[in-house]
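Bench notes, afternoon.
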Amino acid sequence: MKKTLILAAFAALISLASCQKEDAIDNNGTDQKASPVFTASIAGATKTTVSMTDGKVAWQSTDEITVTDASSASAIYKIESIDATTGKATFVIKDEETALGDGPYTATYGTEPATAQTYSATAGKLYMTAPATSNNSFTFTVQCGLMKLNLTKTGVSVKSIAVTGTLTGGTETTYTLTCAKAQSIASAKDFFIALPAGSYTKIVITNASDDKCFLNSA
């Protein structure tokens, strides 16, 4: 009788372990600590790399977001798939060894304009945020604009571009685009600088010899 009871208890433990693992797989399609899966759309827009034709933005397969749980723990999420009809992307956790706790969850995409910006040959990515959600579905809104400067001058290489202005409801602030390697503008070249909403009145272009060119607007 005692042996029968022990076997029954052992069988019950196996059954419980199986259910727990199945729950984890159902939660996110893997058994990686049952990390939640999120879907995300972009409010009023359709690209994350800016189209200079229509100014819109949309998810790309290489995009990643940072998700933060109710305890302020964060994890990086990568795109698993994008719905071609709705433009919504499905995000899964990037590091299989990490996991988030309970929500509500918030999310960000890209880096704030106040952080250092580095020259890129393309338009780059816009800083976006998503408010708290308890249903694993984010709606991102763009938090900055993108200034495009098309520069050309024979014999000149651009080292950095600083843009100064007054933020909406804030104070005067300067944002600087830095070139890891000075960029020749013997042929016309585009430079993109992410800026929060505000009124910008001064641009300072520094060349490879540290000479400065000041552009001001009324």
